[in-house]
Amino acid sequence: MTTFVDRVVLHVTAGDGGHGVASIRREKFKPLGGPDGGNGGRGGSVVLVVDPQSTTLLDYHRSPHRSAPNGRPGAGDERDGADGEDLVLPVPEGTVVTTTDGEVLADLVGPGTSFTVARGGRGGLGNKALASPRRKAPGFALLGEPGERLDVVLELKSLADVALIGFPSAGKSSLVSVLSAARPKIADYPFTTLVPNLGVVTAGSERFTVADVPGLIPGASQGKGLGLEFLRHVERCSVLVHVVDCATLEPGRDPMTDLEVIEKELAAYVPDATLGGQPLSERTRIVALNKADVPEARELAEMVRPDLEARGLEVFVVSAVAHTGLRELTFALARHVARARAEIAVVEPPRVVLRPRAVDDSGFVVRREPTPDGDVFRVIGERPTRWIRQTDFSNDEAVGYLADRLSRLGVEEELYAAGAVAGDTVLIGPEDDAVVFDWQPTLSSGAELLAGPRGTDVRLDEGHRPTRGDKRREFHERKDAQTAARDELASERRAGHWATAGDDDDE
């Protein structure tokens, strides 16, 4: 049964943003009070956080698909939808986040360090937020944006100052148990250690960590045995200790041969340079000739010691069982760790450089692409793509609003400049999910097709409802007009322009 996992492929999906809503306020004696649609909520993001209590990536090996909740849609009465909660995933310290192509996204070191691996989609605006003096009653709302979806690789690389390396059953776990308070599993058969064991060692005023890297065999750097799976745990170590078994009875095994085999594997393994990794063959290396409590092993250790020192290696004859030579080894390790820490350059915080967008940068480009069916024109840009995702194409007014936005952005002028004519195919959006249009430049704004400006309602026009003063003035004007008409008729009658009934009888 798998109990330790240090590399997984994680499939993460951030939450989608909630849709905005198109709503009109309706109250007693006020049947049409204006737009009151709320905005949609933001989708939840997927966040990786370093948790000191987490030691393995086993949970993500068993459940590699993780999704954050979506944002809630808006509602009437100017009620915004709730944001989706972020999905927080705890990871061990030393986890490196990369893409499936090997690009490093984050190196998570330090408790509480977080990295947003997938961002949630923004919520769509309701018609209340879309209202303006020129667009008093929008009959549409914007859709929420989809959350990010991607696959990332999580690799756990132990944070240790010293790495104990060597063949299986060389006594590495035994050394960790006597140098520190760690209690790893110890047995006399190969591949006893299946996980890197870490222990804290104190030597005088120095404190450092020691990692027991599982046994290496010839070809480990190419994936044989368990070596390739755990060589990544050596990448962060500044000091490497060759633990050599001087009491082995296996044919073809001797301290010099074992050392050369391990050195070859170290030289063949290339650490990640993007993390500041130094080639393993260039790091400080110490040789610990182990199992000196066996008389024959001690004689062999004293025999090969001059040859190893002639190579420039610092050699210690030790015994994890008899605790022989451990003090000297511990203080030597502390000395090398302190030197390595002092040589580490002080990391200066990166300078924040502001690069404002140029005044002539439209934020998009139009590219003409040949196809078997003729040339098509692709609009590439963050804002046009986002507007496409926010548009409800079942709503004609929303489509018209999109056309207005694209026209104001200058898309129509760029299409003209690229040689597009009416009826040409225009694609906006990602290549695998683009929206296709048959371009009609005369419909770029579409306002001439409406009875009035888009987003208006004659019932909301403040000019058609007379005030009390207007009504009083209109009443007096009507009465004055009636009085003037009667006076005019009376003057005409007196002047003889109108005949009376008595005059007809006389005739």
UniProtKB/TrEMBL annotation:
GO biological process: ribosome biogenesis
Recorded GO MF terms: GTP binding; GTPase activity; magnesium ion binding
Positions bound to Mg(2+): S173, T193
Listed cofactors: Mg(2+)
Biased composition (Basic and acidic residues): 456-495
UniProt GO cellular component terms: cytoplasm
Cellular localisation: Cytoplasm
Chief subcellular location: cytoplasm
EC numbers for this chain: 3.6.5.-
Protein function: An essential GTPase which binds GTP, GDP and possibly (p)ppGpp with moderate affinity, with high nucleotide exchange rates and a fairly low GTP hydrolysis rate. Plays a role in control of the cell cycle, stress response, ribosome biogenesis and in those bacteria that undergo differentiation, in morphogenesis control.
Protein's name according to its UniProt entry: GTPase Obg
Protein source organism: Nostocoides japonicum T1-X7
Gene, per the UniProt record: obg
